[in-house]
């Protein structure tokens, strides 16, 4: 189906559950992001309807991670960057404290990079290292990183700029589970239990390592 019942949209989507019966079904897992159509029409209100969104895409006016968007069903994922060429405005997909996606305006200088988590690592022929990232990218890199670390991707150079290690005192965001949307400092890491203790402004929480992404 090309549509999703509004009553069944993910709780992380920041749109009302009441309204039209159906909304656009994203091309990827609905839990991982928000379709470009929903962002432009319902959240940023740059367009009034689907026709205007399609017109903007056909005019090559919308960028996602510095690439032209052609399909309104494409999901913008956590920490993805959206660019609106005519207005020269840029937005980052983030999470609010209540676990809902938030589309926040950023400076143009901040739009050239994004952070992604390493979810797997493989050694290919010729001893080349392939990093499988949380946003679906598979990248060959000589940078020394481990699974659960994060990487900073440079859009202009189309390469990994640096590794952000998962370690104590690193800043991290919880992107899934009951604590989704909470930011904090990693206080302790228990690799055997695959858990991390995160100190937020209000409390100390225990989360699975697979549910957090280091951002600093």
For the biggest β-sheet, the strand order reads 5-4-7-8-9
Work out the number of β strands: 19
Beta-strand proportion: 35-45%
Low-confidence stretches: none
CATH architecture descriptor of the largest domain: Roll
CATH class of the largest domain: Alpha Beta
Morphology: globular
Assembly classification: single chain
Gyration radius, rounded: 18 Å
Cα end-to-end separation: 40 Å
Number of domains: 3
The average pLDDT score comes to 91
Number of helices: 2
Instruction: State the CATH topology of the largest domain.
Output: Structural Genomics Hypothetical 15.5 Kd Protein In mrcA-pckA Intergenic Region, Chain A
Percent in helix: under 10%
Which H/E pattern describes the elements? EEEHHEEEEEEEEEEEEEEEE
Counting helices, strands and paired strands, the structural category is mainly beta
Largest sheet: 5 strands, antiparallel
CATH homologous superfamily annotation of the largest domain: RNA-binding S4 domain
Primary descriptors:
216 residues, single chain, 2 helices, SH3 type barrels, 3 domains, Structural Genomics Hypothetical 15.5 Kd Protein In mrcA-pckA Intergenic Region, Chain A, mainly beta, globular, 5-stranded antiparallel β-sheet, OB fold (Dihydrolipoamide Acetyltransferase, E2P)
Topology:
Blueprint: E1 3-5, E2 22-24, E3 33-35, H1 36-43, H2 50-58, E4 62-64, E5 67-68, E6 75-77, E7 81-84, E8 89-95, E9 101-106, E10 113-124, E11 128-133, E12 138-140, E13 150-154, E14 159-164, E15 171-174, E16 183-190, E17 195-199, E18 204-208, E19 212-214
Antiparallel strand pairs: 1-2, 3-6, 4-5, 4-7, 7-8, 8-9, 10-11, 10-13, 11-12, 13-14, 15-16, 15-19, 16-17, 17-18
């Amino acid at each position: 189906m090309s549509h999703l019942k509004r009553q069944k949209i993910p709780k992380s989507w920041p749109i009302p559950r009441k309204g039209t019966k159906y909304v656009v079904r994203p091309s990827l897992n609905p839990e991982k992001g928000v379709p470009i159509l929903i962002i432009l029409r319902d959240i940023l209100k740059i367009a009034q309807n689907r026709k205007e969104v399609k017109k903007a895409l056909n005019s090559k006016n919308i960028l996602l991670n510095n690439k032209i968007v052609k399909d309104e069903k494409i999901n913008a994922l956590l920490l993805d960057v959206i660019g609106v060429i005519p207005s020269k405005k840029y937005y980052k997909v983030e999470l609010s404290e209540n676990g809902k996606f938030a589309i926040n305006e950023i400076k143009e200088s901040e739009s050239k990079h994004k952070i992604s988590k390493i979810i797997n690592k493989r050694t290919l022929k010729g001893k080349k290292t392939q990093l499988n990232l949380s946003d679906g990218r598979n990248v060959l890199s000589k940078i020394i990183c481990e699974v659960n670390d994060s990487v900073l991707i440079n859009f202009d150079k189309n390469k990994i700029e640096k590794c952000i290690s998962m370690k104590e005192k690193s800043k991290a965001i919880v992107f899934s589970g009951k604590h989704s949307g909470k930011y904090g400092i990693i206080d302790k890491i228990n690799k055997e239990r695959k858990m991390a203790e995160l100190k937020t402004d209000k409390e100390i929480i225990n989360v699975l390592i697979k549910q957090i992404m280091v951002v600093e």
